[in-house]
Design goal:
This protein is an alpha/beta fold and 174 residues long. Helix content is 26%, strand content 35%.
């Protein structure tokens, strides 16, 4: 399966989770092993030679491919979860969403200043979550950060919230 064929099986569900939203559904295509292999191979080719020591995955759809990629490139896996889902001690970041505030956390001792990190999530939309996650990584002071998304919703301009010095990749643009 090519990347274009993979993109073609991603459905956009209109008016979900609320009217006016077009939800990019990555769950349904996961039933197709050719889709999984295509994304896996693309991610592996992008990141196998970057010296990545940890993949930081954002809850929950960021978990889908991060564990596969971590195994493929021999990197550790660090989850970022919604506030209150991880045991203490955590580092926390709060960010603005379209309809209020939210907070994310990761274990405080999960990264070091020597880590080269791939921060991975499924979709880059408005950018609030990824900006908060990047702020946590910068607070820890990791050696280098890469960002990857399976897809990016270009019209929402979430990339504007990302530090332009961070190499950022999206496999698909919507």
């Amino acid at each position: 399966m090519t990347l274009q064929e993979a993109k073609n099986i991603i459905r956009i569900v209109q008016d979900f989770p609320k009217p006016g939203i077009g939800f990019i559904d990555l769950v349904q295509p996961l039933q197709n092993t050719a889709f999984i292999d295509c994304i896996r191979n693309e991610l592996k080719s992008l990141y196998k030679n970057k010296g990545i020591t940890k993949i930081v995955a954002i809850e929950s759809r960021g978990f889908f491919f991060s564990s596969i990629l971590a195994a493929d490139i021999k990197a550790g896996l660090v989850p970022i979860r919604k506030k209150g889902k991880l045991p203490p001690e955590t580092i926390c970041a709060t960010y603005q969403k379209e309809y209020g505030q939210d907070s994310i956390e990761m274990l405080k001792d999960s990264l070091t200043k020597d880590d080269v990190v791939l921060l991975h999530d499924d979709i880059l939309a408005t950018g609030g979550t990824i900006q908060a996650a990047c702020n946590m990584l910068k607070e820890i002071g990791v050696k280098k950060i890469y960002l990857n998304f399976i897809g990016e919703i270009d019209i929402l301009e979430g990339r504007k919230l990302i530090d332009s010095t961070i190499e950022t990749t999206a496999l698909f643009h919507f």
